[in-house]
């Protein structure tokens, strides 16, 4: 597993360096190629995906948002979103990254989510503590838990004005940040993270594993994560109020 860990870190460093030193104007162009996830792929999506494939195919199968499933007859499978928050990237908004979940058979055993704007990779392997790695300095980071969060995150909130009104009526401050895996993986930094809509494995696999120590509610079209037990139970008991 250590080789896989090092290779995923190396892949994210390679992508980070590409953004800093090799990014080209044409990388922002749409390819008019509809990826497996159903979106029109940017050229940069394909570039990042190819970096992961190149480095990880010797260890396992690839299941990526752009190319779908590549079967290399391996025990491990990597579930990849090569560019989480691609619209943010396209618009030069500094909140986008990568997501890699690691499965052994049907069991998820690790998750890696990188914020390419800040250069910080958050990851968890097995039941070990969450770790942070700086892609710029190439060193492990120590991060302190924010125990007094002031805002929540509601990803895809723009599609659910009724839920936004409920949150506003309850005086809950929230943000729509535009990179689902990043927000879910870092849920411990917020009051809570709410995601509504199509639950795609590429958005969830790594992030939910990283946040598995928190309180998580998940159904067919919604995920709610909080570090606060009381807020989790309130949401679970009153979930119907959020669908008025």
Explain this structure.
The chain has 244 residues and is α+β, with helices and mostly antiparallel strands. Helices cover 30% and strands 31% of the residues. Strands 4-3-5-6-7-8-9-10 form an eight-stranded mixed sheet, sandwiched between helices. Strand 7 (107-115) and strand 8 (120-125) form a beta hairpin. Helix 1 (2-21) packs antiparallel against helix 2 (43-56).
Secondary structure layout plus pairing:
Blueprint: H1 2-21, E1 30-34, E2 40-42, H2 43-56, E3 60-64, E4 68-70, E5 76-84, H3 86-90, E6 97-104, E7 107-115, E8 120-125, E9 131-134, E10 139-141, E11 152-155, H4 161-169, E12 174-175, H5 180-185, E13 193-196, H6 201-210, E14 215-219, E15 222-226, H7 229-237
Parallel strand pairs: 3-5, 11-12, 11-13
Antiparallel strand pairs: 1-2, 3-4, 5-6, 6-7, 7-8, 8-9, 9-10, 13-15, 14-15
Helix pairs in contact: 1-2
